[in-house]
Amino acid sequence: MAKPQIRKAQDLRGKRIGVQSIVGSTWMNSMLALEALGLEPKRDNISFLPTGDPPTMSQALEVGRIDAAVLDPALSRKLVNKGFSLVVDLAQENVFFPGLGFGAMQAYIDQHAPIVEKLVTALTESIAFILAPANKPVVLKSLVKNLRLGEPSLAEEGYHDQMLLLIRKPYPSLEGLRSAQRLMALQSPKIASLKIEEIVDPRFVQKLDKSGFIDRLYAAQR
């Protein structure tokens, strides 16, 4: 999302992009957005400004503290309604990114596997809860509260966008992690030497999947 006068990729040259932190997820998504637009921060004099969480970032864009930001679909719709520009939609660009997930030291996983299994189970159940049509009122209320939308109609539109983004079986995304690795290596070159296949542990999701637990969650909804 960008200021109303920014309509195309070239208009972002020399501009400020809001992020939560450098090398954080919003920064990496911003870098992926710039790549999709054929832009390069150093060459095109694009700077990043830490501005806070996504709702605060949206407010910073509204008041002109920053020129652009990668935002949640509901927040993006709110700004579109106010005349701001959607410069690129990452959901339409086949961009791979890790998304929602848990991370832990391998030693902790080995010592506390039952706790990790419960966490993964809870995450899987939460996704099923969100996707269940019967729970829509609760999900909408959560969107309004946590994204500080103010307008219930925006939550309704954002809800439908989120339904397209959530993955029912939350296996770690190798493609997404490779994207994150490539971008993080720009700040810390040692990260480039890591083997992504060796730092993912899909066994907990696999156990839920092979046992039929995940399929039963969605069958119960029907």
Cα-based radius of gyration, to the nearest Å: 19 Å
How many helices in DSSP terms? 11
Note the gap between the termini: 37 Å
What does the largest sheet look like? 3 strands, parallel
Tell me how many strands there are.
Answer: 3
What do you see in this structure?
The chain has 222 residues and is mainly alpha-helical. The chain has two domains: 9-92, Periplasmic binding protein-like II (D-Maltodextrin-Binding Protein, domain 2), CATH 3.40.190; 106-221, no CATH class. It contains eleven helices and three strands. Strands 2-1-3 form a three-stranded parallel beta sheet. The longest helix is centred in the middle third of the chain and has 19 residues, at 113-131. The two termini are 37 Å apart.
Gist?
By secondary structure, the protein is mainly α. It has helices spanning 25-36, 54-63, 73-80, 106-111, 113-131, 136-146, 152-165, 174-184, 196-199, 203-210, 213-221; strands at 16-19, 47-50, 68-69. The protein has 11 helices and 3 strands.
Keywords summarizing the entry:
globular; mainly alpha; 3-stranded parallel β-sheet; 50% helix; D-Maltodextrin-Binding Protein, domain 2; 5% strand; 222 residues
Please outline the helices and strands.
Blueprint: E1 16-19, H1 25-36, E2 47-50, H2 54-63, E3 68-69, H3 73-80, H4 106-111, H5 113-131, H6 136-146, H7 152-165, H8 174-184, H9 196-199, H10 203-210, H11 213-221
Parallel strand pairs: 1-2, 1-3
